[in-house]
Amino acid sequence: MRAYLRNFRFLGVLLPLICSTLVSAESAVTQIGKGLYAYISDSDASANSTFLVGDAGILVVDTGLNATEASKLLGAIRRISALPVKFVVNTHYHPDHQGGNAVVGPSATVISTDFTRERTMAIQGNPGMTSFHFEPANLTFQQQITLHLEPYTVQIYFPGKAHTSGDALVHFPEQRAISMGDLFLNRSSPAMDDGSVESWIHALDNVLELPLDNVVPGHFELAKKSELKRFRDYLNDLYEQVRVLKQKNETLEQVRHDIHMEKYSDFRQNAKYEATFADNATVIYQQMHAH
Description:
The chain is an alpha/beta fold and 291 residues long. The protein has helices at 2-19, 67-78, 95-98, 101-104, 114-123, 197-208, 225-247, 252-258, 277-290; strands spanning 28-33, 36-40, 49-53, 58-61, 85-89, 109-113, 139-141, 144-149, 152-157, 169-172, 177-179, 214-216. Strands 1-2-3-4-5-6-7 form a 7-stranded mixed sheet.
């Protein structure tokens, strides 16, 4: 029940706030490898996307918040290729990552983890979700799936509980790039869903072992491996501080007050999204308490 309430609050209360928060920067498309492009959204309300242009079709990772954002993404894709969008991968169930599926890939095979499809189906009837039109995955997996979009190979896998309980990472080995969804936000404290920060850190450690030149975050600027490493260090530093303070029998309120994250003073924080140092510490404390 606690997990359900957290998810409902995250989507039903915070999402309308997110939807009303737009920034005026211009969306950016950057080629990050042969046939591979990163689309950095001009709206903090909508997710970044990645698209791979093969010989006969296109794969898109995450499609944005809604039809408006998806149309901007599709316009960017069409400026590069007129090939059909054959595959859409949704990294997780939050609407800002899958709300544009029907616009970007109306005939596409939509791919996600089993959990993401199940959660998507569950939230469709929530009162706060009535303005969103979901296209749940019609191809799901539990651990990993390899997609051959000739002449390229795409590795889509579940790294373990992290931001949610069913995230997907999308690795483009030939292009030395990866699309992270919300497992990585560049210079930002993340909003944390019902996942596992401990497992999240391990997942990032594994990604950092890959030969990568470009990392596409769920939101904010395109990154290199060094920026992903710093985000991983943020989570790990905070996790270790909470662990030590909890071993000293500090209460949650004491923990929230006693963490020291000055090293990450340049990170974005947003209390409306429960995405601050203290909010992240709260989730870590609660996850530790549940074990």
